[in-house]
Amino acid sequence: MHSGTRSRQSAFRIASITALILLQGCASTADKAYQEGWRNATVVQPRVGSAVVDNVVKDCRAERAASDGTARYALLSYADRGSAPKYYVAAVPSDLSVRAEQWYQVNVTDCASRWHRSR
C-alpha cells in the first residue's frame, strides 16, 4: 500500500468519526428537547372558549384559570413519534397572534412556555 493511500484512509476514518460525533450531538439535543416536552404542533382552532374539548391530553385552561382571567387558549394537534394525533389546549402567549394551520414548537408539559414558529 502506498503512503498516499494510507493517508487518504486515515483522513477518511478521522472524517467519519468526526461526523458520527457531530450527528450524535444533534440527536442528543433533539432527544433532550423531546424529553422536556417540546413538540411541533399545528393550530387546529385559534380560539377556544370555555366549552369542553373532547380527547385532549392536556388542557391548560384548568391550570391557569384561577391565575389569569385574560388568557387566550388555542387547540393544537401534535404527533408523538408516530402515534395518532394528540390534542392539547394551550395558553397562547399574550404577544402572539395565531391562525389555524400555523406550526409552532410548543412545550406540551408547560402551560406557561413560549411558542416558536417552526414552519
What can you tell me about this protein's structure?
The protein has 119 residues and is α+β, with helices and mostly antiparallel strands. It is 32% helix and 28% strand. It has a six-stranded mixed β-sheet. The longest helix has 33 residues, at 3-35. It starts with a helix and ends with a strand.
What brief labels describe this structure?
alpha+beta, 6 strands, 2 helices
- Rounded to an integer, what's the Rg over CA atoms? 22 Å
Shape: elongated
Mean pLDDT: 83
Strand content bin: 25-35%
Strand order in the largest sheet: 2-4-3-1-5-6
Query: What's the order of the H and E elements?
Result: HEEHEEEE
Distance between the termini: 51 Å
Structural class: alpha+beta
Share in helix:
25-40%
Major β-sheet profile: 6 strands, mixed
Q: Please, how many helices?
A: 2
Q: Count the beta strands.
A: 6
| Low-confidence spans | none
Overview in brief:
By secondary structure, the protein is α+β, with helices and mostly antiparallel strands. 32% of the residues lie in helices and 28% in strands.
